[in-house]
Specification:
This protein is mainly alpha-helical and 207 residues long. The chain contains six helices and three strands; from the N terminus they run ββααβαααα. The protein has two domains: 87 residues, no CATH class; 97 residues, no CATH class.
């Protein structure tokens, strides 16, 4: 059975890359004293951190001989001796498939992917619901304009007023459903301010 390199982005296999060595994750040695057990445990954990895959836990990799790292990820083409803890090749250190300074993981947990997909589906459903409501809004446009006409400044062209009301209400509705800020709030504020100013001047003239 061929060996496969488990490093992110590496496609090397023992069948097509016979000139490259493949090395299993170091085992914990328990029968050569506590110091040997401690250092081999540290090395095993350090390898998993260097491989940097969330699904590769200690329990997951236990007994899985097919999990290998190819020689392309070591400066000398192979791991250093277990006692040479200061050797860079004590762990995989080249072409690890991520930024070694930040160790940004490229593989998300399944639950994180499900949550993102659920959020995306929810937004799509909200958008579709907004389209339906806008279609209903357009069907009720004449009545809506009659209801909102008193809140608009006097002297506006009637056709333009109807168009403006519909477009503003459409954008406000979709923006509220998608939880995104909209510039139409400012338009409404300006319209209300113009209405207040107009009424104020009218009252002053009456006085």
């Amino acid at each position: 059975m061929p060996s496969y390199c488990c490093i992110i982005g590496c496609s090397n296999t023992s069948s097509k890359n016979k000139e490259i060595g493949f090395f299993g994750i170091p085992k914990v040695i328990t029968r050569q004293g506590s110091s040997c057990e401690e250092i081999t445990m540290k090395r095993r954990i350090a390898w998993l951190k260097a491989i940097n895959r969330i699904d590769f836990t200690l329990n997951f990799v236990k007994g899985k001989k097919w999990i290998k790292v190819c020689g392309n990820h070591f400066k000398k083409g192979k791991p250093a001796y277990v006692q040479n803890v200061n050797d860079p090749d004590w762990i995989p250190n080249l072409k690890l498939g991520y930024d070694p300074e930040h160790k940004s993981i490229r593989y998300e947990l399944p639950n994180q992917r499900k949550a993102k997909n659920a959020l995306r589906s929810s937004r799509q459903a909200q958008y579709s619901e907004g389209i339906i409501k806008v279609e209903r809004l357009e069907a009720d446009e004449p009545q809506l304009c009659e209801e909102l006409a008193p809140t608009l400044p006097l002297g506006d062209d009637r056709n333009f007023t109807q168009h403006l009301v519909t477009e503003i209400k459409r954008e406000v509705l979709l923006s509220s459903l998608l939880s995104e800020p909209s510039a139409t709030d400012i338009i409404f504020q300006n319209l209300n301010q113009e209405q207040f100013t107009l009424q104020h001047h009218t009252n002053d003239n009456e006085r």
